[in-house]
Amino acid sequence: MYRKIKTQLVLAIVAILLPSGLYAQENDLRLNIGIPLGKYGKFDHNYSGANETNSPSFIIQLEKQWKPDMSIGAYIGYAGQKHEYNLGFSESKFNYYRFGAVFTYELNNWLSEMNIAPANGIEMYASAKTGLSLETTNLSVSELDSGNQAFISTNKKNELLLDLGVVLGARYHFSNQFGLFAELGWANAGFFTIGTTFTL
Q: What residue range is the signal peptide (predicted)?
């Protein structure tokens, strides 16, 4: 069942990203690869007295210019968390496989009209993201049977959740093709995201 869901997820991602690549022109695409920091909400589970481990999260976003100062695209991402408790005999694992669409509005021209445009080549923007996240939950608990023999009870669950959020971002280009970006908000499985940006 899980393998079937994973295959369907990969096919959905390809279906989202493929059209942008087919109609791409030179310098028409932007690729962002980022690491979200500071998990929140559904991506952050807290257990009292548990040892928490966060898996490395990432987000990959491909955008195509749509109109002046506007672009549309798609994203995929991952976030994971594990909690060990009961002296390590029990654990809870949460994995999120995320995918959806993104709309970005460049803010520099708008800010210039108010005489507050950022200096030094920094580009400001706001992005709205909407999509789905597949949450896979794996709960393992150490228990005793009627003969006082220890065994591991596992409970696995898959759930499709709404993925929705907005971020405020800034990017700086070291060349025409390469730069860095940072985003603050609720759209990347973390409050703060840093990463690299490529113009294709």
A: 1-24
Contact partners, residue 123, CB within 8 Å, separation at least 6:
106, 108, 170, 171, 172, 173
Q: State which amino acid sits at residue 16.
A: I
In the beta sheet, which residues pair with residue 63? 30, 73
Least confident of 29-33, 55-59, 86-90, 168-172: 86-90
Type of residue numbered 78 = Y
Measured between alpha carbons, how far is 82 from 59 in angstroms, rounded to an integer? 19
Q: Which domain holds residue 120?
A: 2-199
Integer Rg of the chain from CA? 20
- Tens digits of per-residue pLDDT, 138-171? 887 765 555 555 555 678 899 999 999 999 999 9
Which residue type is seen at 117? A
Question: Which residues partner with 124 through β-bridges?
Answer: 170
Tally of structural domains, the chain: 1
In whole angstroms, what is the distance from residue 147 CA to residue 165 CA?
A: 51
CATH number at residue 176: 2.40.160
